[in-house]
Amino acid sequence: MRQRSLIAITAALAAGALTLTACGSRDEDGGGSSDSGNGGTTVVIGVDAPLTGDLSALGLGIKNSVDLAAKTANKEKFVEGVTFKIEALDDQGQASVGQQNATKLVANKDVLGVVGPLNSSVGESMQKVFDTAKLVEVSPANTNPALTQGVNWQKEKVRPYKSYFRTATTDAIQGPFAAQYVYNDAKKKKVFVIDDKKTYGAGLAATFTEEFKKLGGKIVGTEHINPESKDFSAVATKVKNSGADVVYYGGEYPQAGPLSKQIKDAGAKIPLVGGDGIYSADFIKLAGAAGTGDLATSVGAPVEELPSAKEFVANYKDAGYKEAFEAYGGYSYDSAWAIIEAVKKVVDDNGGKLPDDARAKVVDAMQNVSFDGVTGKVSFDEFGDATNKQLTVYSVKDGNWATVKSGTFTG
Q: Computed over its alpha carbons, how large is the radius of gyration of the chain?
């Protein structure tokens, strides 16, 4: 996670960046092509993320970062005559709620793009709704390969939905990248694999397992946990008795933190390794001292270490958001900015005004969007996947996530 302690440090280094001023709030009636206050058209960017519940730390970081992108575009008058506003909906990490939110966003004619969601299972439930409405969706966090490459992606890649894009790289890369680090760098040869049975967690665990076995590693046990539970003592005992020298967990931090603690309490003093779903300051809080030495992979290079991100970090701080931007802040900003770039292209191509079929035109424009973003070069391949394939391994050290290694997966 882009941990809180680093935000202040990096912001200080980037001092002098302009303080952003807030724009007016959205009209109560949704206000579409109405006057926006500066003689232009209002374009709404939808946001779907878990804004309450266990995963809200990540969700609020997504929402705030999209808000910052909209404010920046307005301040710069990036699209002449267009004012950007956001409509943020809470999916609570639930696929059924996400689908309802997708329907609600489609119904607002001013929404020309949506950033989100966090969870791959939620993304899966929203894709058809958006695609039918020709409304572009850009996720900063979905990593399950099937969302862009089809359910049989390992044998034949087929893009299911033209309107779906993402700025995060996929578990087809993240799982194997982690396996290579665990086997080659950390020198761990016996792993116990656990997942939460959800789209993201199970998919990530599967791609890790395949690569780890290919490298010569041994899977000494597998287990599925109930994500609604917080008592993992039974599986912790199985881990202890398996002789594993590392645990790989496919899932998210609300379960991973207690799981790590209970595995250590059971007597297995071995690291827990997970993906970007556990890369949060909240994992460290939940795991306590037991989390020291645990590892996580996350998409991209560390935002705090990218020269391109210094202005974002400083501006985020200056904007006064109460919550940290967390793991997906930079990717959320870039997702929103990709929508803004696509809207600009559509407006420019239509003589400075939005065409009647703006949504479909924005979907088409998104395929060719390319710019230097917070997270590096932002563009999309033929499947709607990010062309940036970089990943980073982090370790819990002195109560924070510390960068261990950045790179790309080599198959």
A: 21
CA–CA–CA angle 403, 408, 411 (5° rounding): 135
Going 5 to 8 to 14 to 18, the CA torsion angle's sign is positive
- Are the C-beta atoms of 207 and 174 separated by less than 8 Å? yes
List, for residues 186-207, the tens digit of each pLDDT value: 999 999 999 999 999 999 999 9
Task: Confirm whether 384 is domain-assigned.
Answer: no
Residues 21 and 106 in one domain: yes
pTM for this model (two decimals):
0.84
SS3 content of the chain, % helix, strand, coil (to 5): 45, 20, 40
Tokens of 145: 């390969």
| Same domain membership, residue 137 and residue 115 | yes
385 within domain boundaries: no
- 163 and 295 share one domain: no
Extract the runs of DSSP E, i.e. beta strands, from 16-80.
41-49
Mean pLDDT of 389-400: 95
Residue 386 falls inside a structural domain: no
Structure confidence by residue, pLDDT tens digits, 314-332: 999 999 999 999 989 999 9
**274-308 pLDDT per residue, tens:** 999 999 999 999 999 999 999 999 988 888 788 88
Do 15 and 157 belong together in one domain? yes
Question: Which H or E element spans position 71?
Answer: helix 56-75
d(CA 411, CA 372): 27
User: The tokens 């932002």 sit on which residue?
Assistant: 378
Q: Report residue 255 as tokens.
A: 């379960």
Q: Does position 147 have pLDDT exceeding 90, yes or no? A: yes
Residue 166, both tokens:
């993402």
The answer to whether residue 92 is domain-embedded is yes
> Which residue range is the domain that position 228 belongs to?
172-299+391-407
In this structure, are 294 and 311 located in the same domain? Answer: no
Domain tally, the chain: 2
- On whether the CB atoms of residues 137 and 113 are closer than 8 A, the answer is yes
The verdict on 289 and 328 lying in the same domain is: no
The Cα–Cα gap between 248 and 225 comes to 13
Q: What is the CATH number of the domain that holds 76?
A: 3.40.50.2300
Cα(229)–Cα(196) distance, integer angstroms: 10
In whole angstroms, give the CA distance from residue 46 to residue 48.
Answer: 7
